[in-house]
Write a structure and sequence with these properties.
Layout lengths: L1 H6 L4 H17 L7 E4 L8 E4 L2 H6 L8 H17 L3 H16 L9 H6 L1 H18 L6 E3 L5 H12 L3 H4 L2 H18 L15 E7 L7 E4 L1 E3 L3 E2 L11 E6 L31 H28 L2 E6 L5 H8 L4 E3 L3 H12 L19 E3 L2 E6 L2 E6 L5 H4 L2 H6 L4 E7 L2 H24 L1 E4 L3 H17 L8 H21 L11 H16 L12 E3 H20 L13
Parallel strand pairs: 4-14, 8-9, 9-10
Antiparallel strand pairs: 1-2, 3-15, 5-14, 6-13, 7-10, 8-11, 12-13, 15-16
Length: 572
């Protein structure tokens, strides 16, 4: 069989790499999936790390530049993870198993396997995708439930499938529960009614700060925005204890450029455009002094307007002139400088302020652009100074209609890990968990985990195919399409059977399928549990799009022809 793969232009090592990818996807899937040691390159000194997370494994999966099909499969799985946050192993496992099943399908003597792969296979995949989507949307589906946010056990089951993947967490149920409760608290803090019309999705309102060294139990949630940029906080400043107005500048306040400020340049004007270096030292020094005096005058007028508007915090994306910092500091104004682009969006979201992007277009009424923040705190974390901005609490700040439309709650998650390898895994898994909660909040629907949904869909596909496709013609196009749908159903059972029933113990495929069907029957009955029979719950969107995307990728791979003939060894 490998000879045909080589004839079609696919090298043997790429065939073996795809086979290894299927096996890894089969072993790592599920809450009790095995961890794998993955080497990022074959070169000496390449890093080797242990993980069971699809995001972490695929990010460093070694790909030779000659392996174009492998690159296609990895890129498709990474694109799914980037958009939906979960279901990476399901996407890989299902798509490659369906591809292998269809390329090895031969419907009797006289049929052309190549023609079958390009016609009936694509039609069968289209029917399977349509029926699978309809089965998941059916309100009578026993594996489809409305998530009750008041049921803490159900929400923790939703997070468990994601948080048990990192090696740092998989051996400690206490740490998994701690992270789940911490993430849930942060998510509920930023979740507000009418999020479809909000300025940003809840997962975008959660900020992460990562620390290497502390234990996992050190991680915590802060209601507010934690900045790792310097802040000038005067002693006894009002902003340290109560709500304050915040003026936000997305332009540098380090120097005042006359041309940028829209100042008309007369014959005797002093500015950067009119100033030139002279050989006379005395005249040059006088010109520089005049320029600085003019600049201080401009900053003085700006400071007077800020103080008149009762601005308590000046936040700037870049540097601030030292004279302006000292002048405002003496008058009790807190200075936040060097926010950078990665911070200014969060400050704008927390306060509702409108960023000022030019010194030539300063507002006439500062209350139109200023926002509100709560108390400002200075904290030292891991030997580095941080600034904490609390959300506003007064009714006066919340009463402004403009700020209600532009402000939303912000949470900060402080994530610590004992080493850089555990921290790298958490960097990918924690945002996935927040995205999982967002998908569940958006749709309100969760699906049974533990392979129950896959078994239910497998039986639904077979039943639908028997009812709607005729079986009189043994080699007709309808019979071929029915065979494809049945092959997809078998692959769904194979994917579900990869999930171990208990940690460290795999059961047979037939035993697993029968146990899953019994659990589904209990879900249909009124005496059975409402949900959670599979041990975990999955968000609907990642699982739905993982299976539909896998069928789409299988169709693309089938159209490539017989280049993936991996049937020389059976898959587990």
């Amino acid at each position: 069989p490998l000879l045909s793969a080589a004839i079609h232009g696919m090298e043997f090592d790429e065939v073996n790499e795809l086979r290894r990818l299927v096996r890894v996807a089969s072993d790592c899937v599920g809450p009790c999936g095995r961890a794998r040691a993955i080497r990022s390159s074959s070169l000496p000194g390449a890093r080797t790390f242990v993980t069971s997370s699809a995001a972490a494994a695929l990010h460093s999966w070694p790909i030779d530049r000659r392996h174009h099909v492998l690159r296609l499969v990895i890129d498709a799985a990474q694109a799914h993870l980037q958009r939906h946050g979960d279901g990476g192993w399901l996407f890989l496992n299902f798509s490659l198993r369906v591809t292998l099943a269809l390329l090895g399908l031969n419907l009797g003597a006289g049929s052309d396997p190549g023609a079958f792969a390009h016609t009936a296979a694509l039609r069968g995949l289209a029917l399977a995708a349509t029926w699978l989507d309809e089965a998941l949307s059916d309100e009578l589906c026993p594996c489809r439930h409305t998530l009750k946010w008041s049921d803490l056990g159900a929400v923790l089951s939703l997070l468990r499938a994601t948080l048990c993947k990192p090696v740092a967490l998989c051996g400690s149920p206490h740490d998994i529960r701690h992270f789940a409760l911490m993430i849930l608290e942060a998510f509920l803090n930023v979740l507000a009614p009418g999020d479809d019309d909000a300025g940003a999705a809840p997962e975008a309102r959660v900020r992460y700060t990562w620390f290497c060294g502390p234990e996992l139990s050190w991680s915590s949630h802060i209601n507010g925005l934690l900045l790792d940029t310097p802040a000038v906080v005067p002693v006894g400043a009002p902003g340290c204890k109560r709500d304050s107005q915040l003026a936000l500048f997305s332009v540098s306040l380090e120097q005042w450029m006359p041309a940028a400020a829209g100042v008309e340049q007369g014959p005797g004007a002093v500015g950067m455009e009119n100033y030139t270096a002279e050989s006379d030292f005395a005249s040059t020094l006088a010109g520089a002094t005049a320029l600085r005096q003019w600049e201080e005058g401009r900053f003085r007028k700006l400071a007077e307007r800020l103080l008149e508007a009762q601005v308590g915090i000046l936040a700037c994306q870049k540097l601030v002139d030292p004279w302006l910092v000292d002048h405002l500091k003496q008058r009790g104004v807190i200075i936040l400088s060097r926010l950078s682009i990665r911070h200014i969006d969060y400050v704008q979201a927390l306060s509702g302020a409108v960023p000022i992007s030019s010194l030539a277009a300063l507002p006439e009424h500062w209350e139109d652009v200023c926002g509100w923040v709560g108390a400002v705190e200075l904290r030292t974390i891991q030997g580095r100074q941080h600034t904490l901005l609390r959300p506003p609490t007064t009714a006066a700040a919340a009463s402004q209609q403009r700020q209600q439309q532009q402000r939303w709650s912000t949470s900060t998650l402080l994530i610590g890990a004992p080493d850089e390898y555990a921290l790298a895994e958490l960097r990918r898994v924690v945002p996935q968990a927040v995205k999982c909660l967002q998908d569940a909040a958006r749709s309100g629907i969760v699906l049974e985990g533990g392979g129950l949904t896959e078994i239910y869909l497998s039986d639904a596909l077979v039943t639908r195919a028997r009812c709607l496709l005729p079986t009189e013609a043994a080699y007709g196009s309808d019979a071929h399409a029915m065979a494809v749908v049945k092959a997809v159903a078998e692959c769904l059972q194979d994917v579900a059977a990869c999930l171990p029933a208990e940690k460290g113990r795999h059961i047979g495929r037939h035993e697993f399928v029968e146990a899953a069907r019994a659990a589904i029957h209990q879900l249909r009955s009124s005496t059975g549990p409402s949900y959670g029979s599979g041990g975990v719950l999955d968000a609907e969107a990642p699982k739905r799009f993982a299976m539909l995307g896998a069928l789409d990728l299988a169709g693309v791979l089938v159209r490539l022809g017989g280049t993936l003939d991996l049937m020389d060894e059976p898959l587990a």
